[in-house]
Specification:
This protein has 142 residues and is mainly alpha-helical. Helix content is 60%, strand content 7%. Helix 1 packs across helix 3.
């Protein structure tokens, strides 16, 4: 049985976000190199905004997709022992909720999205929209 959820601290969430913010672009550059985009930048120049967004999303999903789907964690959250769960539950949030509800708010309104973390609930706007919370991960007691 899992212990009750303890809401993750702001510092842990920020550090996890910074780890992911460093890993995803590095992974994206590796994808660009493997796919040949770095060899011929002219092919990449025709719709750079869409290609960058697509490459960023692909990199994020390839790097974090399995962990998000199975455990509600990104690499940064995994390293720091925190995870995204359904509000009021110890169950990981479904991947569709993370991608369709949390991610767009995070991408479109990044500064506004982060402000509510300073309330007593320690939830970002994308947590409120998706009905999720970020908690400390505890070892299971069997």
């Amino acid at each position: 049985m899992n212990q009750p959820n303890q809401i993750a601290g702001r510092g842990l969430r920020l550090l996890a976000t910074l780890i992911d913010a460093l890993l995803v672009p590095v992974f994206a550059i590796a994808l660009m190199w493997v796919s040949g985009v770095l060899e011929d930048a002219r092919d990449y120049a025709n719709h750079p905004g869409l290609r960058i967004l697509g490459l960023g999303l692909a990199s994020y999903l390839l790097l974090n997709g399995w962990l998000l789907w199975r455990h509600g964690e990104t690499v940064g959250k995994r390293l720091l022992g925190i995870q995204i769960v359904r509000q009021g539950s110890a169950l990981p949030a479904p991947l569709w909720r993370l991608l369709l509800l949390r991610s767009p708010v995070f991408l479109v309104l990044p500064v506004i999205d982060e402000l509510p973390i300073f309330t007593r609930h320690r939830k970002c706007l994308h947590d409120w929209v998706a009905g999720t919370q970020v908690v400390r991960r505890f070892a299971r007691k069997d």
